[in-house]
Design a protein that fits this description.
about 200 residues; Nuclear Transport Factor 2, Chain: A; four-stranded antiparallel β-sheet; three-stranded antiparallel β-sheet; 3 helices; globular
Amino acid sequence: MAATVLLSGCQDKPVTTPAPTVSPILQTASATSSPTPPSTAPTPSQTLISTRPTSSTELEALADEAEQVYVAYKKLRLKYEAQGGIDGPLPEDLKQYVAGTESRAVETVLRSVHQKGTKLEKVDRMTFKRVGTFSDDLEENAIIGIQMCDDASQVVFKDGKGSSTRASSLMYWSELGRGPAGTLQVVYSEVKEVASCDA
């Protein structure tokens, strides 16, 4: 049985055109083991691309940078979920990876984790796979979109009563923009539960 994940109005999206139209997700989770988060903020690419890509070379370079930021963000977020969420404002180290709608959404998720007492275990087994990129129909402050699958098939979800089930794999459409420091930040995400990241 898969863990229950609240998806606010998510719609199926084709891989090539995941235009964001839904509200942020609420995913409840936490864990006992956690990945090692990066010790420093992500750094901008050598050739800073600060607008939406105009060539396939720019798109690929920006997508590679976006994937690195996304994975670092998700590992750090999992660390907080492993610790039982937050009971206050969004931690400063997470703010380097998120802004705008995503910042508010992840703060809501982490507070919900804390309030419900839900947890994830074996989060170090979570893997991330880039499925695609997009640069059309982005939020105003975004310059690149990436479609990522978070494979949680080896992660265990524990509800507030201690019952355990396998966590669900999730497909994300995340949009990133340049923050004040010049690094990419996730500004918006949509998600849907998927059977597998291999499909």
